[in-house]
Amino acid sequence: MDMIANIDRQLRDLDERSLTRRRRTVDTPCAPRLVIEGRPMLAFCSNDYLGLAAHPAVVAALREGADIYGAGSGASHLISGHSRAHVRLEDRLAEFESPHLDNARALSFCTGYMANLAILTALGADAGAEIFSEQLNHASLIDGARLARAQVKLYPHADAAALASLLDASTAQTKIVVTDSVFSMDGDLAPLPELLAACERHGAWLVIDDAHGFGTLGAHGRGALEHFGLRSPNIVYMGTLGKAAGVGGAFVAAHASVIELMIQRARPYIYTTAAPPALAHALLASLDIIGGEEGASRRAHLQALIAQFRDGLRLQRWQLPASATAIQPIIIGANDEALRVGAGLYGQGLWVPAIRPPTVPAGTARLRVTLSAAHTHEDVSQLVAALNQLERT
Fold first, then answer.
1. Percentage of residues in the chain with pLDDT exceeding 90?
2. Which of the listed residues 241, 256, 291 is the one where a domain comes to its end?
């Protein structure tokens, strides 16, 4: 009972510092308009950036995939769980990203978290490997670097010059630079061209987590690589499939030798049951949309909503950092005020999450507004009006 009492003290401490996290139960499909515990709400908190999670073609493909392949895979990929649906998806993803990678091959994963752990533990297993990690990287990249047991050096946010200095001083045989492309709590972009140039000069891998860029960036939705026009054998690219693609899972695309190394060495790939093949089948429909005219139209609409949101806000006390992506943070500062504002929006039928430490630095609690191509201009107008009114109260 002393152990339980200790846990209860930790929970009380979180609550006193306005850091308790709470779940809400959604009763309807992922979409801007939800029913949450019986109450209709307009949500600005999903990563369903293109509005594909409930797209009829994707839903129909998921149903068809279940009819063809059943409900589950039954085993890991290296036993008997590697379905024809997984093969088709990986081949399609490799083709999709091939304009930016030499001899491209792709490997699918159940989650982006697992994919990042797999990349860094596979590449970083060499004796004397050194990982250069962006200061604001996602938790999965931080944990992957820890599991790799390589020496880790941090470089300041978006500071390519600082990274170059660290690489200049490194004597490691294997150098791995790892960064988000779109930073999930700030919405800004990493300076990928400068980072890649430094990696190519120093013979380093550039691991890019494009979780929030895949599907939304680039003329064809290929992500940050297309957005910046990058191509290099030094790139190891991770994209998630449960955000803009609307289904679930993730993939790594890189030179075929890198992918083969991961199949042989990456424990998060080897020792887990493969994702249901029906999901892979559904994702083929998502890729058709992302790379086609409808995907381009949805990306254009999303950009129009982003511009409308930023142009409409009239903030005086809170801060709206620069962001051209679907992630639009409003930095409030104190934890309790961020919670109060989030509750105020919720009372008006608007769901916007309040993000607090340790997800973001102390003193930078914020609202994380995420926009989707499934939102309307009227939806954004309603949110902007509510935010402008709440800041004045």
1. 97
2. 291
